[in-house]
Design a protein that fits this description.
globular, 30% strand, 15 strands, 10 helices
């Protein structure tokens, strides 16, 4: 068992943003769509086609903000691809794009010296080595409430792009349409960060990193701090416009125990049900485990303060805290989690 185990569910209000593209038809860039089923009371189920953010897009942006945060904290074990937000993984930590000096890692232990290989995983089929991502991300979908699902929609905005004379023979404008969406989204993230710098499929230990425990703490802290720009950026395609977004609610769990994933924030009662889930698991495991009595922390932020549970200690094992400042919530969670490593 390798703590910390981090679970997050959040609601983010997103306005006029390009979230996840689903392809291009001519000069029309489409928005990703999915189908959800909604049931209210005794009414028959209804099907809604709604705009979504794919888990892959959220995961990609987390890796970018992770690399930026890690470097800001003084981290130095990351290759050029990781620094530049390029998703090609499985290369050694000293690989560089200068003169295309990319070296394929020959072992998992060698590959995970690089931050992005370590936290977000890789696959090298020729070498028959891989690593599962420590970060798992759900789809972001509109909150499953009738009014929100009825309002969820996509729409297109016309853009102009200048075609230089050197390209087309004359200066002209190219018209294209980009789809956007505006809605209250729920999302969920699970991170098993105790596996940082620990090979999953190889018995070989990582070598060549000074002070391994300090480096683990640094990576764990960066992984959690990166959640803040991720939530505020909403995994948006930012080439056409920065996202307009506001975090409405966040429930974040940090535990020494491998607690289950908490309820997705698209469900209306996700806060209460998540706390019930965590409490049931922790109370069932704590008595048999060798961890200290206080082993799990539940942090809640909501713009509507009444949505968060009361602060206090439950079952001598779980501490619940409410925050009016999302930045302070993420910071405290990062500090607590980084000190849980074994």
């Amino acid at each position: 068992m390798y703590p910390p185990y981090v679970r997050l569910s959040a609601r983010v209000n997103v306005e006029v943003s390009v979230l996840t593209g689903s392809g291009t038809i001519g000069n029309y860039n489409a928005h990703a769509m999915a189908t959800v089923i909604f049931k209210k009371d005794s009414d028959p189920p209804r099907v809604y086609e709604i705009p979504v953010i794919t888990g892959n897009a959220l995961k990609h942006w987390h890796s970018i903000y992770l690399a930026e945060t890690y470097e800001a904290l003084g981290g130095r074990y990351l290759n050029d691809l990781c620094k530049r937000g390029i998703g090609a993984r499985g290369y050694t930590v000293d690989s560089t794009l200068v003169d295309n000096k990319l070296k394929v890692a020959e072992s998992e232990a060698d590959a995970i010296k690089d931050l992005c290989n370590d936290i977000h995983g890789f696959l090298n089929p020729d070498q028959q080595i891989k690593r599962d991502s420590l970060v798992k991300v759900s789809f972001g979908v509109p909150v499953l409430e009738e009014e929100i699902l009825e309002a969820a929609s996509k729409y297109s905005v016309i853009h102009n792009r200048v075609i230089p004379k050197e390209v087309s023979g004359k200066v002209e404008m190219m018209i294209f349409k980009q789809e956007y969406s505006s809605i209250l989204y729920g999302l969920s993230i699970s991170m098993n960060l105790g596996m940082t710098l620990r090979p999953m499929y190889s018995g070989r230990e990582v070598s060549g990193i000074q002070n391994l425990d300090y480096e683990r703490k640094l990576r764990i802290k960066a992984s959690i701090l990166a959640l803040l720009p991720l939530l505020l950026g909403s995994a948006s395609k930012q080439a056409r416009a920065l996202p307009i977004s506001r975090v409405e609610e966040t429930l974040l769990v940090v535990s020494q125990l491998p607690v289950p994933n908490i309820v997705h924030a698209s469900y209306p009662d996700y806060i209460e049900r998540s706390i019930e889930l965590v409490r049931g698991y922790v109370s069932g495991v704590s008595g048999e485990s060798k961890v200290s009595n206080l082993n799990t922390y539940i942090y809640c932020y909501s713009r509507a303060e009444a949505r968060c549970p009361k602060e206090g200690i439950m079952d001598n094992a779980i501490q619940i805290k409410r925050f009016n400042d999302l930045g302070m919530l993420i910071r405290e969670a990062a500090d607590i989690a980084s000190n849980m490593i074994k």
